[in-house]
Amino acid sequence: MVGVMIGSIVFGEMSDRYGRKKTFFISLVTQLIFGILAAISPEYWTFTLSRMVVGATTSGVFLVAYVIGLEMVGPSKRTIAGTVCHMFFSVGYMLTAAFAMYITNWRTLQLGLTLPGVIFLIYWWFIPESARWLISKNRIDEAKRLIHYAAKYNKVTISDETLDVLLKPTEEKVKKKDEKSATVLDIFKHSNMRKKALIIFYDW
Questions:
Q1: pLDDT-wise least confident of 25-39, 41-55, 181-195
Q2: What's the pLDDT tens digit per position in 90-139?
């Protein structure tokens, strides 16, 4: 859990600064490396350190994937998208217990839980960067290309003029936001955010 706590701060900041996609894959590759290292650890401290890094990268893999899922859909679909993402998290925990019933060697179990992650490396060629993140970084042209691609895939026509009108309010917000950089401490400045943050901290 120490690793998870550290990872949620480090990879959360990375995803905001460098992008969702890059952070997801940096986390995934790091998780694979240290997951394998944990399985072949020659002594206790190497195993402990490896597992702490794996815990940290869990935040990078799961939480960033969760954010990507929410940012790719509209407000009306976010509850469904968020619930589906958390379902995989819960199902994974249950499957871990099921695997442990039949794989009694801990090294084999560690490898069995780590190596399937290799499959997700192919996502690099399928998952685009978040359009919302691109807009937040004022990379409007890239966001427009991504939105046009999504519209074409969904057999919807959207003109450049319409897209400019839709994005204009967001662009103005981004310009104002750039004037003042936000920090983690900002969540404590407003009572509503502070209350929700403390509840989440206690829950975890």
A1: 181-195
A2: 888 888 888 888 888 999 999 998 898 899 899 888 888 888 888 888 88
Q: Map tokens 């799961």 to a residue.
A: 62
Q: Looking at residue 47, what is its pLDDT?
A: 93
Q: What is the DSSP letter of 63?
A: I
Closest by CA position to 72, among listed 64, 140, 174: 64
Domains detected in the chain: 2-125 (1.20.1250.20), 131-203 (no CATH)
Would you say 83 and 73 are in contact if contact means Cβ atoms under 8 Å apart? no
| Cα–Cα distance list, 119 to 18, 63, 122, 126 (Å) | 23, 19, 6, 13
Could you give the C-alpha distances from 4 to 10, 15, 165, in angstroms and in order? 10, 15, 41
